[in-house]
Amino acid sequence: MRKFLVAMTLTLMGATFASAGVWETTCSNCHGKIAPSKEQLLAKFRTPKELLSAAKKKVKEGRMPSQLAFGIAARELFSKPVRTAAITKGTQDFRKFFTPLPALPPIPKDNSLTPVKVKLGKMLYYDPRLSRSNLISCNTCHNLAIGGDDNLKSSRGDHWRTGGRNAPTTLNSGFLRVQFWDGRAPTLEEQAKGPLQAHVEMNSTPELVVERLKKIPTYVKLFKEAFPNEKDPVTFENVVKAIAAFERTLNTPNSPFQRYLLGDDNALTPVQKEGMKLFVKYGCIACHNGPVLSDGMFHRFKSNDDTGRYRVTKNPADKYKFRTPQLLNVAVTAPYFHDGSAKTLGEAIKRMAQQELGKTLSDSDVEKIKAFLESLTGEVPLEARTVPQLP
Questions:
Q1: What residue stretch is flagged as signal peptide (predicted)?
Q2: CA 293/CA 304 separation, integer angstroms
Q3: Which of 282, 295, 256 is CA-nearest to residue 360?
Q4: Tally of helices (H runs) and strands (E runs) in the chain
Q5: DSSP secondary structure letter of residue 35
Q6: How confident is the model at residue 217, as a pLDDT?
Q7: Tell me, what's the pLDDT at 21?
C-alpha cells in the first residue's frame, strides 16, 4: 500500500497529455515497476471508491498530501483497459521523469527583478555590517564559492551560537515552494528576515540594519535607484526585497544532468545513467521531482529530537516532518539532512533508502546513484560568486 501511495503521489503530480488519460500517460510509468501493477490494484480494490477510501485514510494519518486529485486516475483504472509499457533496460528514455531547470524562478509582482536591485542585493548579501557583530554576512553561512552553504553540521552565528539545523543552500532557492526546513517562510523575502534577526545567527534588528545603512551614502543612493518611487527607500522591507532579488539569480545551469535533459545524450556517463534509472526504479523521484528535484512538501524523517514542521503548525501530524531538500548541487553541500548527521553522500543515500523506502541498497547501487547525483552539480554564476567591493 505504501508503494502504491508514493507512486500515486508522483504520477499525479506530473503533466498529462490532452489526447490520453492520466493512467495511460503517467501512472503506467511507475505501476508494475516500482508500484503495484494495474492487475494487483484491481484485485485488491473492487471499486474506485474503495481505492480512494484507502488513500484518504493515509491523508488523515498525515502520510499523503491532501491536495492531490487522484480520483480521475482511479476512475480510469476501473472503467477501461489501460496500457502499461514495460521499462526495458537500455531503451527507456528516463528524461520524461525529470524537468529541466528554467532560466529564472517565478518573480513576485511586488518585487521586480531589476539590475540595480540585484546589484544592491548582492552587496547586502556579502555585507557583514548587517549583523550586530559586524562579522557575519549571509555569505558566511551560505557561501556561494562552496555550494551556497557552509559545509558545517550546523552554522555558527553570533557569539558562536548555533541553531541546531544544517544550513540549506541558497542556490536555486527561488524555485522552492517554501523556505527553511520547516517551511515557516513562504517566500525568499520572508526567509531573509529570519537570519538577520535570529539571535543564534546575525542577531540584528530592523532598526539597527536601517540605521547603519542610512549612514553609508553609496547605499542610500543605490536604494533610491532600486526603489525609485519611494520617498524613504532605505527600509528593512526593501533590504530583504533586494537580497531576495539577488538570490533569484543564483541559479545553476549547465550541469551534465541539465545538458542531458536538453538533448545531449553524451552529457552523462554510462554509470550516471544507470544511477538515474535506479533513482526512478527505487522511487526516490516520488519526492525528489520538479526542476530542483524537490516536491516542496513535508515528509516524516526522524533523525533526532527536532520535531520539524510541528514547531510551526503545532499539528501532531506534522511531528518530525521536514521539507524535501532540493538535490541540485547536492554533491557539494555535505553534510546532509536537517541535522547534518550524514557526513557523506553515500551515507545519505543509504539512510534515505532504509528510512523512507524500506530498502537496503547494495554498495554498487549506492555508487551508481551517487554518480547520478554528482551530475546535478551546475555552474554558479561568476558574477554572483565574485565578492563585491563594499562602500
A1: 1-20
A2: 24
A3: 282
A4: 17, 2
A5: B
A6: 98
A7: 52
Q: Is 207 a catalytic residue?
A: no
Q: Rounded to whole angstroms, how far apart are CA atoms 171 and 248?
A: 8
In this structure, how many other beta carbons lie within 10 angstroms of the beta carbon of residue 88?
Answer: 7
Q: Count Cα atoms within 13 angstroms, Cβ side, for 167.
A: 28
pLDDT of residue 88: 36
- 155-212 confidence digits (pLDDT tens): 999 888 988 899 999 999 999 999 999 999 999 999 999 999 999 999 999 999 999 9
pLDDT score for 51: 77
pLDDT of residue 125: 98
In this structure, what is the dihedral angle of CA atoms 161, 165, 171, 175, given to the nearest 10 degrees? -130
**Would you call 319 exposed, middle or buried from its count of C-beta atoms within 10 A (0-12, 13-18, 19+)?**
middle
Question: Which amino acid, residue 131?
Answer: S
Decide if 329 contacts 376 (C-beta within 8 A): yes
pLDDT under 70: residue ranges of the chain: 1-44, 59-70, 73, 76-92
For 184-232, give the secondary structure using H, E and C. CECCHHHHHHHHHHCCCCCCCCHHHHHHHHHCCHHHHHHHHHHCCCCCC
Distance (Å, whole) CA 316 – CA 307: 10
Q: Which of 378, 376, 368, 377 is nearest to 272 (CA)?
A: 368
Catalytic residue among 76, 189, 201, 374: 201
Strands 298-300 and 321-323: antiparallel
Structural domains present in the chain = 2-86 (no CATH), 95-101+253-374 (1.10.760.10), 115-251 (1.10.760.10)
Q: What pLDDT is recorded for position 50?
A: 79
C-alpha cell at 71: 480520483
